[in-house]
Amino acid sequence: MDGHRWKCFITNFLPKLKIFRFKMAIYFYNFDTVKEREPPFDEYFWSIIPKLDRVISLNIKLSTEKINQSYLQALFDQAPHLYSPSFNLNLSSNSKLLFFNNSNISIRRLNFKETNSFDQSYFCNHDQCIVLSRSSLGKQCEVLSIRVRHRRSILFLINRMIKLRVLNIRYQDNQHE
């Protein structure tokens, strides 16, 4: 479907929908050429869907170390009622998770569906838990689903995330740590 057909389809049918699922996969294999490509959410996209006012839940797959925070923030800005983003992480344990610095005042629930490239569970290390707890998303989070590598991270998150009401957690039980 070309851009014009998409525009007609969205303009005619989106206001009538109660549930709209939009899935878009964007892959950058060579980061040296990223600057030459159009961003995933360009002006044309936002002219068709100027606001994502009704979006309350969003599944975001992050599978690279070089996450462009401005794209993610633009998406958050267009979804003022976003309550529950789910992040499917495919990152290394050394990732800084800079996207925690993004903000949206309506986000209250964070769900991290962590997998690595071998489709095995990915657990956040303690440093990543510290970054999360200090971030704006972490400070306003009320419901958190996450996997952590160390038991001490559980207590750390409970003590530092002051608005936390519900914590769904799985930890990597490694007796030798």
UniProtKB/TrEMBL annotation:
The protein's name in its UniProt record: Uncharacterized protein
